[in-house]
Amino acid sequence: MERQSKVKSLEEAIQVIKDGATIAMTATHYNSVPMAAVRQIIRQGSKKLTVIPTPSAGLAIDLLIAAGSLEICYVSYVGLEFLGLAPNFRRAVESHSLKIFDVDEPTIIMGFKAAAAGIPFIPLPPYYKLTDFPRVNPLYREITDPFTGKVAYAVPPLRPEVAIIHVQQCDPFGNARQLGGDHTESLIAKAADHVIITTEEIIPVEQIMSDPLRTTIPGILVDSVVKLPYGAHPGACPARYNYDEEHLKRYASLAREEQTGKYIEEFVFAPKDHFEYLEKIGARRLLELKIS
Amino acid sequence: MERQSKVKSLEEAIQVIKDGATIAMTATHYNSVPMAAVRQIIRQGSKKLTVIPTPSAGLAIDLLIAAGSLEICYVSYVGLEFLGLAPNFRRAVESHSLKIFDVDEPTIIMGFKAAAAGIPFIPLPPYYKLTDFPRVNPLYREITDPFTGKVAYAVPPLRPEVAIIHVQQCDPFGNARQLGGDHTESLIAKAADHVIITTEEIIPVEQIMSDPLRTTIPGILVDSVVKLPYGAHPGACPARYNYDEEHLKRYASLAREEQTGKYIEEFVFAPKDHFEYLEKIGARRLLELKIS
Amino acid sequence: MEVAACGYSTAELMAVVLSRELRDGEFGALGAASQIPMAAVKLAKLTHAPNLSWLCGGSGAINSKLPTLLQSAADYRNLFGAEYRTSMEDVVDMEMRGRVHFACLGGMQIDQYGNSNMVCVGDYHNPTVRGPGTVGLIFTAAFGRVYIYLHHHNPQILVEKVDFISGPGFYDGSRMRDEFVNKNAKGPCMVLTPLAVFDFDEISRKMRLCSVHPGCTVEQVLAKTGFRPLLKEPITQTQAPTEEELALLRTQVDPEGVLRQLIP
Amino acid sequence: MEVAACGYSTAELMAVVLSRELRDGEFGALGAASQIPMAAVKLAKLTHAPNLSWLCGGSGAINSKLPTLLQSAADYRNLFGAEYRTSMEDVVDMEMRGRVHFACLGGMQIDQYGNSNMVCVGDYHNPTVRGPGTVGLIFTAAFGRVYIYLHHHNPQILVEKVDFISGPGFYDGSRMRDEFVNKNAKGPCMVLTPLAVFDFDEISRKMRLCSVHPGCTVEQVLAKTGFRPLLKEPITQTQAPTEEELALLRTQVDPEGVLRQLIP
Lengths: 292, 292, 264, 264
Hints:
Chain A is an alpha/beta fold. Chain A contains twelve helices and eleven strands.
């Protein structure tokens, strides 16, 4: 008997995301955002998703909001970093068309960790008392530390149904190597029920076996592997290519002018798949971004 | 101005451990146990220590008990693995001369994680109700999950004052690379207030800088770096040398016969330092254990 | 049982019996003193379960390819050809959350409900024997299925009631257990000893003798068991290793013959 | 302030002022949009603080040696020559537990008690401006000292009371804060703007104007501040960069002149 490969087409892998699902995906600002997968979520017409973004997110969330895919968003940071506020996020919250849970970096990280560990909840330090989080977000529950009698704040585990993680290298069985910064790639894999890896490159399992300490996500957590070179464009894929600043500025400018629909038409719906998208960006541009 | 090295002599580094201190040290069975540091703790005459061993410990704990250094021991597993029960531990508990807290692997790991994160306590799943831990250990407190109303068990953070960690490579500023299995080396560094690294080899910071992803313990957590080739003997140092089975069997046999004092006299007090210890073991034996 | 007498050793038989139980596509965890289950998973991967993945105890290795059975699962040499090095934190997370489909473990005492004890024999506060401690036995409440294997079969190990519950099996046999364990934790499903194979009755949740190994009798087993197990009708003889199983075991899994020396 | 007028830019002045505050042997954390604090730590390491270590925001780099100031602290290129790659989990752990001696951060609103807000302008449920969110500002209750730096100085940013407390400064000025923050968290100690330098009064815990930058007047600063700050007597002129500071800054820290373009 032969070991089964987990390699799938993007379309097949993303189909697992049903309307109403709770998802998470990698991102620290413009690093390792699985943008090709996000475009496919929009292309397949997903609706009413709940997204638990990593602590510093923006581009993918803003696009999903503009496409009408989101119902609920957890918010630690949703912005465009050096390009300013995320325009569609801002408008959606100001116009009450998106339900949000205001959280923050430790709440998301510790919530993912609680889900990864299967513990009932996670207690956060007393100093949340000095903020407005407990006032606006019912997920923060004031509790008493049974050992000291001091106040603490309980938050529930954050357990996405599906996590999408972009990496540089992965074998056919889901053993992934994530280079560059460690932006919750392995954490959300551990927190989620179903894991989709999108990867710049598929490497043989023998390469993984030659240096198991380099594997950052074990295949046992992974359900699908999708080969997507430049799958993080217009964001950066650490150690592979930089972010496409010109493209990002164009996005930000269209978004500010309430023209995100045009962007989506041109870059999501017009290309029928990721490779048509790459053709549209053009080989010259892609190679300019590449790190040699 | 020049950056200051953290390299110290073993004697100087271990002096920070005062009588009554709470300590932790690396070990998964015979892997990466900082045995040279343990011998120095005995040599300097430490008393009334509390030890929070990693989940699968034995050799170091049994020796510290025989030397009269311990007052309190947290117990997940204290044994000699393929060599059976830890004789001094067994006798000490059966004769009530050692205070113990019966815990287990998740309690220790999650307790260290709670200390590393600075959170007030950690809730464990309801199934502790089905065990005898809450009955015998007051550190387990039955609480109610504020989200579901179900039972859960709170345990406090486990925060050692001093952690001793044996690694293969470390730079003078405490940036350490731990090869082989990941046996809580980085976790106890994060949990502790003071960290002593004992290392087979000191490497230049430039080597660390050439591949920061290989660093497993950051220098910011580290207070002392001690160069100790074969510092884990008679245990193994992964990727450097195997455990000394003959020596371990001799220890186990003396310990069973209530002759550990003889062992301590011969291998701890007679050699005035680690290098005299190594001379006693002999170059031939050390090189037999070495992995080429 | 001598190898000479029947062509295979007791440990080889136990490894083969266990390997047949393991299912393709699952993820299993082994603890210390794991030569038998280690051989079982390696054999299962070669026969019917190529998609089985396994954690080699304290080494942290997932899917070790080391072509020998070391006496310590924690030995870092098990990282040879592995696909991932799990940290202890990862191991706790995966086991506690219930990601592990099956685990193989032992104990100082196992009782008729499959509860296990590694803490003490006798009263906790005045033990006759102080054991090493529980390590990860709590996760018998979180693993999908639990295989208990023992290197010895005697009334001191197989007891009516454990003196300390380290790892909950079916607790007192009541349904109370189900309220507290992880959703998919089905509890102990097999007890494998040098003499026999047991499972657990679905209704009473008590241990039940299923088969005795070639050369053993039901009477011998009952005499060496510290309680009266249920008897599955009919009690069969444990199926001996096939030639193919034995050949794979000896050429690819255990070329050094560790299993032939393991249980005297 | 034009570089031409006085030989250095506002951002260069701010970086130098901040660098003088940083102490040897400490561990500091920077967030996003960090060119000024990044320059400050790099300069401090070259002048008086060789044992200072620092975390370069989302990149996870500790002690990055990248010889340029990128617009994103999260840019993985900051890992160049670093000594460790911190994971996000590590960052949260170290910050929450209070291992970070100082942090440099900004905000959409900062109030007279040094509370910071990145969530909303106006009522939370009907905001005039919805901000991006709080990220790690909570840790102002856990960092040893907090340096607030702003690229703009105006009454919309420096307000009497923030509309949402993301990061607690001295809260309402009462001692209540001290009960809830980490033991060693001394709170905000400096607010650095393109016009002036503030600290906080020890008794009232209100923001206090200490110095105005060369070319600015106290009146200008007060007119652009949304509340009446305390005034430290005497208010001095911010000490300009020395020739040595400026030379190090331009040759080793910011050879591409990012700080000369940063604040118009």
